[in-house]
User: What shape does this take?
Amino acid sequence: MRALVVGLGIQGHKRRRVAGADCVGTVDPFHDEAGFRTLESVPLDNYDAALVCTPDEPKFELLKYLLGNGKHVLVEKPLWFSGEAEMDVLAGLSASSGAVCYTAYNHRFEPHFVRMRELISSGTLGQIYRCRMFYGNGTARLVRDSAWRDMGAGVLPDLGSHLLDTARFWFGDIADDFRIVSADSFENAAPDHVVIASDGACPRIELEMSLLSWRNHFTCDVFAEHGTAHIESLCKWGPSRFVHRRRVLPSGRPPEEAVTLVQDDPTWEAEYAHFKALCSGEGVSNLENDRWLYRSLGRLSSEIQGAT
Assistant: This one.
């Protein structure tokens, strides 16, 4: 597959590295390293797919151009548009041209995230009562210094999109009934620490996200009928640990199965391989997932911004 990287920021450089020999060109209006300044200036015969790593504002027009010309697209999350009608346009173009539009959520390829999904799907845990996740990094100052990042709902669409997508990856079509528990702007203009929760049918889910975690960290705890499951850290911040504890009734110390991984982040390569498989006809676009996330994040963002 011949791939074009659009946007040469941090994500664009990662995508170019992973694409390797597949990368046939780069586009960036400002970066001196880019081969082209505009997407339209790249001959359409030069590439089959594009890896779009730009800020949110230009994404819709870029994706419309690419899908309209039958080019497969991997785009960095989240798809954050001015209205849901734009999602309809992209879905229509993808369907009519046969081009895949895939929004990247690389944490779905984290080994322990896959292990958690398999454990939940197996039924071993029984009824899932509750899930809580925390995802934090220490980028508050970097975000504050970026004109386009320190605005709106802040950390919510950035890290919250990952957490909501992970909940759907594990539990399927969950209800869109999340509420804002807290939204604080401790150092930034936009919220830099947010907690949301779903209190409807099981599993009840609590998601906490922060730009104020001075050591990047992820934790998850799943509480269920027949035991619990836990994740501590991601491979990129390793070591990453998965623990499954089987409940002892009426009480007692539970048998514990633990897996600890010390390795480089495998998710970028795994996700790119998944995208290539989709493009070869083995799958479909994930725009319906984007639509759910857009609605949920849009509603929660409006609540946050309306309260400030």
